[in-house]
Amino acid sequence: MTPDITPQPVGPTGHADMNLQRQGFVCTMNTTDEAVRIPAPGHLLLAGFPIGPTNGSHGASFELDANATVWWTV
Fold first, then answer.
1. How far apart are CA 30 and CA 40, in angstroms?
2. Which of 9, 32, 34, 58 has the most neighbouring CB atoms within 10 Å?
3. Biggest alpha carbon–alpha carbon distance for the chain
4. CA nearest 39: which of 59, 19, 54?
5. DSSP string across 1-37
């Protein structure tokens, strides 16, 4: 299975984050120099920085730091 790479516009200025999806997992990357607020695509699995609580809820909004990556289970 090859990853599904889906760029998505985020925030009022149209910043982009990228979701890489694989069965059971989503990797979300912010490749900009500014933090962005986006909905959580699943339950937090791994982050290299502290993020605010998502309450374990799919779709809960959280702030993704600049140039950061997080992994989710879906």
1. 13
2. 32
3. 34
4. 59
5. ---EEEEEEETTTTEEEEEEEETTEEEEEE-SSS-EE
